[in-house]
Design a protein that fits this description.
This is FAS1 domain-containing protein. It comes from Methylobacterium crusticola. Strands 3-2-8-7-6-5-4 form a seven-stranded mixed sheet. The protein contains seven helices and eight strands, in the order H-E-H-H-E-H-H-H-E-H-E-E-E-E-E. The protein has one domain (3-167, 174-179): FAS1 domain. The protein is of the alpha+beta class. The longest helix is centred in the first third of the chain and has 17 residues, at 3-19. It starts with a helix and ends in a 6-residue tail after the last strand. It has helices spanning 3-19, 53-62, 65-69, 81-85, 91-95, 101-109, 119-128; strands at residues 42-48, 74-79, 112-114, 132-136, 142-148, 151-155, 161-171, 174-179.
Length: 185
């Protein structure tokens, strides 16, 4: 299976998972040209998003499909294909190699926070934190969340920031917030 095919399959799995979110909204946003169904899991929804094929492939390569299809709840900051493309050339191809599975797992789980944090929840935490809130990731590191105008941003421990481009994509097992940069632990 090629990386491109694997990426598409992984994106489909993530899209499907995202669709099956827990809370039911009047209307979930479309992601990557696909409807996200709040009755489906993060993985079930993600596999349908054309914008998340690289993420889905990476989730498969890391062996995280069952985890992200599980009960959760999870808040996933989901980088787009364009976010992965901003990494240095060869980074993604290297990360999905079997010998790099531990590193790939660290990168992916750095984008996952236990619990369900909607945009409203994140903004409340930011206000309570005096302009910034820290979230502990499944990987064990922290992500900082901040608000600039009406937009939410996430920063990794190195100071790189990602904008939440599509928020509150409710799933049966949590919520996805689409981001435009890959966060690195």
């Amino acid at each position: 299976m090629t990386i491109r095919t694997t990426a598409r399959a992984a994106a489909l799995a993530l899209a499907l998972a995202a669709i099956s979110g827990g809370a039911v909204l009047a209307k979930n946003p479309m992601v990557g040209g696909a409807p996200m169904l709040p009755t489906k899991s993060i993985v079930e929804n993600a596999v349908n998003s054309r914008d998340h094929t690289t993420l889905v492939a990476a989730v498969k390569a890391a062996g995280l499909v069952d985890t992200l299809a599980g009960p959760g709840p999870f808040t996933v900051f989901a980088p787009t294909n364009a976010a992965f493309a901003k990494l240095p050339p060869g980074t993604v191809d290297s990360l999905v190699q079997p010998q790099n599975k531990p590193t790939l797992t660290k990168v992916l789980t750095y984008h996952v926070v236990p619990g369900t944090y909607t945009g409203r929840d994140l903004m409340a935490l930011v206000r309570k934190g005096g302009g910034q809130a820290e979230l502990r990731t499944v990987q064990g590191g922290t992500l900082a969340v901040m608000q600039k105008g009406k937009a939410l941003y996430v920063a990794d421990e190195k100071g790189d920031t990602a904008k939440v481009t599509i928020g509150d994509v409710m799933q049966s097992n949590g919520v996805i917030h689409v981001i435009n940069t890959v966060m690195m632990p």
